[in-house]
Specification:
With 329 residues, this protein is mainly alpha-helical. The chain folds into two domains: 8-176, no CATH class; 229-328, no CATH class. 57% of the residues lie in helices and 7% in strands. The protein has helices at 8-13, 34-47, 53-66, 71-83, 91-111, 133-154, 178-191, 199-213, 218-237, 267-296, 312-328; strands at residues 119-122, 128-131, 240-244, 253-258, 262-264. The strands form two sheets. Strands 3-4-5 form a three-stranded antiparallel beta sheet. A two-stranded antiparallel ribbon has the order 1-2. A hairpin with a 5-residue loop joins strand 1 (119-122) and strand 2. It starts with 7 loop residues before the first helix and ends with a helix.
Length: 329
């Protein structure tokens, strides 16, 4: 099946997925100048002097297999693998490129430590500059691997990372949480206001798989899963009773408003619509309860999310309670 993707020229111009990488014996065969060799290819792509996907892919695969414990080599390898994604016209090919990119990202994540000194690489003009492979891997993840995973899914092929199949281990090292938080943010933004779209299930699958496989990041993932469901439950269950003030009380017209249903003037219509939306929200409420409970029982300082984000947990808890009160009524 042929799939529609972004033009290859655009992609080329820019700069075991579920399991932790083994520090393979082949790591000892990684040459000292591996990062420079890979970087030269990246610069050739950027300058337009290298446009052969086969050559780019071959070097990326070489780095992934030969230098798994070199974080900067893996960062550049993920960039190279990302560069060929837009050339794929078949689902099998695109899935292969995505899988290679995820493998490089995961290996780089496990190889990186806070004490890692960036490689100093020669630039095309002869100068030297530090290379930050962790940043490169994060860019490959957020701007290529995840978006192209969605492209693949829309073409009818679910990549294993969003299929719901359990992971054998966490694809993120316990040493850093920035990348897992950025990915979870990506999925939350994608799912917001889209509870009735097919992609919502893909987001559920990925976040739940990460939650199960990543004990070191579980509290943070509790938050992002709570946000996934909580922001939808809040919209589904929030009704306000107000009026249009037309200058005098006698002329005021009362109405109900919900973010999804909009303005409803008749109480009977409102009750019917509310029942419909509550029915959609209840399965999500059951899924979110344990995550909200976990967050509310944990000191905020022990949960690594962005400042102020945890304040929203109480809003989601209130949204679930609105459903509970409806059942009691």
């Amino acid at each position: 099946m042929t799939i529609k993707l972004i033009p290859a020229a655009i992609s080329l111009a820019i700069a075991a997925i579920s399991s932790a990488p083994a520090q393979a014996e082949t790591a000892s065969a990684c040459p000292a100048d591996a990062e420079q060799k890979l970087y030269d290819m990246e610069m050739a792509i950027r300058q337009g002097t290298q446009t052969d996907p086969a050559a780019i892919l071959e070097l990326a695969e070489w780095a992934v297999e030969t230098c798994p414990d070199r974080p900067d080599a893996q960062g550049i390898a993920s960039t190279l693998a990302s560069a060929v994604m837009g050339t794929a016209t078949e689902a099998d090919t695109l899935e292969r490129y995505i899988t290679l990119t995820f493998k490089a990202i995961t290996q780089g994540d496990y190889a990186w430590t806070p004490k890692h000194e960036p490689s100093v690489l020669k630039q095309p003009d002869g100068s030297e500059a530090p290379y930050y492979g962790y940043n490169a891997g994060t860019t490959a993840l957020l701007q290529y691997a995840l978006p192209f995973t969605i492209t693949l899914a829309k073409a009818g092929r679910l990549h294993p990372i969003i299929s719901g199949v359990p992971y054998t281990s966490c694809p993120f090292s316990e040493r850093a949480d920035f990348r897992v938080r950025e990915e979870a943010n990506f999925w939350n933004r994608l799912a917001k206001d889209n509870y009735n779209q097919a992609g919502f299930v893909w987001v559920e699958n990925r976040l739940n798989s990460l939650h199960a496989a990543c004990p070191s990041h579980r509290k943070e993932l509790d938050y992002y899963i709570a946000r996934l469901y909580g922001q939808e439950i809040d919209r589904l269950t929030l009704w306000r009773y107000s009026h249009n003030d037309q200058g005098s009380w006698a002329l005021s017209k009362w109405y109900w408003h919900n973010p999804i249903a909009g303005i409803v003037n008749e109480e009977s219509v409102m009750e019917e619509k509310k029942a419909e939306l509550d029915a959609i929200a209840r399965p999500m409420a059951e899924k979110v309860r344990p995550h909200i409970a976990s967050l509310m029982q944990t000191p905020h300082d022990d949960i690594r999310v962005y400042n102020g984000d945890l304040e929203k947990v109480e809003d989601w808890d209130e949204a679930v309670k609105r459903l509970d009160s409806t059942i009691r009524e």
